[in-house]
User: Fold this.
Amino acid sequence: MRSVLFFALICAAACSKRPATGNDPGAGRLSYGDSIVYLRSADYSISPNRGAGQYSAFPDNLLIDPATGRITVRNIGKAGESQTGIRYRIRYQPADGPADSTYIVLGGINYLDRIYNFAANDTLMQPLYNGTPAGLLPPGAYGIQADSRLAIDAATGVINLKESLRRGMFDLPAENGEWEEVTVRYKTRDGSNEATNSIDVALYYYNSMADIPSNVSVAMRAHQAQIIGIAQTPIPLTSGPVDNDLPDNLSLTKPRPPCIIVIPH
Assistant:
């Protein structure tokens, strides 16, 4: 009798289970397959393993279909979507279940918003690879653009800001409040198969911390808040006069282009 009762309980439990659906958490956590996605020579798309719903990305410069979650991987330069070298958090809300999320990295290099003070011998911009400071750069060719003013190490991607000033990145002599936007183009021997990649960088020149416009430091702090999983040098709020003549693609809602401030003394 006891064995018959045990068998009945097993059957009841098995029969009570619902089949997994596309929106059921039992169907698997949100995933795009690989956690790192690389640029190719032509645009392409990747799709998640979940069904239709509401998809969004943080930070807000990923080209993602809000209904299907399909991501288009591309690199189109200034103010472009799906920019590389950044870690993104993808959020998914199905119509009939709990929200889910995952992270993906669009492979590439990044330079972080920062103030460089030459008086402290702070002159070298170090790149990050694949959204992490621990990511060693693969072999490649960094700085393949024709702009000789940018002193970039072709093997490491490190930018020597002091040497860039000497080469005439800004006017000679440089003027307080000048800025230049440059595009760093590069190729890496990784999953991109040496497809040409790029990152835009905005360089600013100020005589002192007091000269940094308040809206520039606000933008830099907003950029820092959108970089996931990386400890960064804090950007202080500055009180310099607002500058309305800044790069037109400077954004508070997207972390590109990073703002690099040079204080020469």
The chain has three helices and 15 strands. The helical segments are 2-16, 161-166, 214-224. The longest strand covers residues 179-188.
